[in-house]
Specification:
Blueprint (H helix, E strand, L loop, with lengths): L15 E12 L5 H5 L2 E11 L16 H14 L5 H12 L5 E10 L9 E8 L3
Antiparallel strand pairs: 1-2, 2-3, 3-4
Helix pairs in contact: 2-3
């Protein structure tokens, strides 16, 4: 992957973000015995801020973040293991996404949809940034 600095006469601040919105998965998550026996619906919202110096190039797909691959990797880890806490799941998702050097910041919102009666959802929102 080649990092290309934008050299334009006009000055712009460029921001590129990949958004995965309302991805619903059925996974084993939770500390209670009943949560270890039955899958729960969890909604994921993910925002991934990318390095603005990496210009997207359709001839070099390493310049973009493949959201399908991110989703497939998340589905794989949620299928392989039980997570006790949404925070554990968040850390595993961060680990997957930050494997990509072009990722600067990730914001996650993870919600259990069916665990509390009279509530649409309960969950966490957390973000992590790469230190320069």
């Amino acid at each position: 992957m080649k990092i290309i600095k934008f050299k334009l006469k006009e000055k712009f601040k460029y921001k590129r973000k990949v958004i995965i919105k309302n991805l619903i998965t059925n996974i084993f998550i939770g500390i209670h015995n009943f949560e270890k026996k039955k899958k729960q619906r969890v909604r994921l919202n993910i925002e991934i801020l990318l390095n603005p110096d990496v210009k997207p190039n359709n001839k070099d797909l390493t310049t973009i973040l493949n959201y399908e691959e991110v989703i497939n990797r998340i589905k794989l880890i949620t299928k392989k293991q039980h997570h006790n806490l949404l925070e554990d799941l968040a850390e595993n998702i961060f680990r997957i996404i930050f494997c990509e050097k072009k990722v600067l910041k990730v914001k996650l919102k993870l919600e259990k949809l069916d665990i509390i009666k009279n509530s649409e959802s309960v969950g966490i929102e957390v973000q992590k940034s790469r230190l320069k």
